[in-house]
């Protein structure tokens, strides 16, 4: 056994020497390249090596670096590899990389590339070749790298397309070229929709400019990377009704770099042409506040039958007790004497009544109960009435689309939301599809015949606007939503070479609190730029004071009682006096 292991060890050892001998065909080049790779690792760490092509020094070097390595000798993968952004690509030749897999290309788009040039390629043409593919992190070495130690690195924003770097000097090979774009244009297109993006004319230069929490972020980015904003107005083709959907499409077709707009995120299959989410919000309905109970109904609302029945029963019991205590027998009880008991009727209506003289203790007790009852019932009804007149009860809030079906409201939407609303359980005749301008006008004037979809961000401005009204008109429903979780990102070109810079900028601005500041100021900006008004859109208040016709129940009952009393009075006048005297005596 021991012999066997020794033989194995010897075999392994000699094989290693054998490999050393074969790879020593270009030992100096390999040593220098190894030094270069080590230096690249200190410049910016890489966690994966991806080697395209074979027959060059790179594959054998990778084993010495102890970094996971993927060898693609055929030059292309037909699998969706999820390479990390810290991948370093080594190509054995300019033609070696022939990647065609879209997803792999997307992943590798910003990766650094080191190319071993063989034959006589000019660095300039190599840089052109790669910049046509929108790849800018390119460095190359020629086969005589071991003699001269020169690395060529592509540079974008300067006269010469590349830079010659002496390996012994301490100059970075890959730099973040897009940190200073030297006035290069960023193609964009504004979607003027307050409060994200609002247009105004600069009073000094007369140029059209944009502010808002979407526009400001892009404006700041342009300043930060020393670029210029170039608005691609010719794309609009004089069309009026353009929206963020068009801008998202243009970005997906590589006609724009970054749109000054929200990106369409609803039902996207991939997010290649959308930035990292800028804001999270929801897309729900703003709904008119529920109706108040009309004043004319308040009087009937406070008189509820169960309470009346209870009062009636108490009335009867007290009346019976009163008669029994006075007469000390059940024979005096009759329907009329119980129901029309003089003391009880007056007492329950909170009127003064005569207290019989020489009344017993029990009678006094019952009379006291009558006094308490009268105070409690009248106070209760008075409090009830005044509360309801001050703040009439409101109808229940809508909590589901079934409530919308039953309500008097229709759903106003734009053509862009048709698909989304179709997936909700709402019948067709409840939905009104309007063009954007009409929709904007109705929603902007708080027309309370409709309910409107609105993003939480836009609702913030409506809410501030309502603060100026005599009373609020709408509320933002948290339950009736088109989309509970709405992502607001920017439309960007798929192969945008400075996507990471833009996203980092976005997060920094947000982290610093600028986004919140812009959001808080948005209603003020809208007012200043005449996108909103502080006009009160409340309908004239017809319902706020009590009018005579609101009291018809009260007057009706009053006159009915008066009529009844008159009839009794007339009857009394007409009946002979003798019968009355007899009756009075009997009582
Ligand atoms: C890469 O990620 C995608 C989705 O994120 C997944 O569908 C695919 O299987 C992954 N590829 C590999 C090789 O894991
Ligand atoms: C690179 O720099 C070293 C010393 O810094 C110098 O000796 C060498 O000649 C330079 N090589 C080239 C090609 O300029
Ligand atoms: C910004 O770009 C301009 C060219 O448009 C250039 O002159 C200027 O030096 C750049 N600024 C910085 C700080 O590099
Ligand atoms: C904008 O999009 C709408 C539909 O989304 C389309 O009908 C219209 O043609 C587009 N306009 C342009 C200029 O592309
Ligand atoms: C859709 O609405 C109808 C009536 O409006 C209701 O009967 C049905 O249950 C609803 N379906 C769902 C999935 O909510
Ligand atoms: C603001 O807009 C209204 C109509 O929307 C217009 O009548 C008014 O003149 C505008 N005011 C200013 C200062 O532009």
From TrEMBL:
Transmembrane domains' residue ranges = 298-325, 365-384, 551-574
Please state the span of the N-terminal signal peptide per the UniProt entry: 1-16
Q: Where in the cell is it found?
A: Cell membrane
Kindly state which keywords UniProt assigns to this record, in alphabetical order: Cell membrane, Glycoprotein, Membrane, Receptor, Signal, Transmembrane, Transmembrane helix
What does the record say about its membrane topology? Multi-pass membrane protein
What InterPro entries does the record point to? Insect_Ionotropic_Sensory_Rcpt
Name assigned to this protein: Ionotropic receptor
Source species of the chain: Drosophila suzukii (Spotted-wing drosophila fruit fly)
Gene name per UniProt: LOC108017693
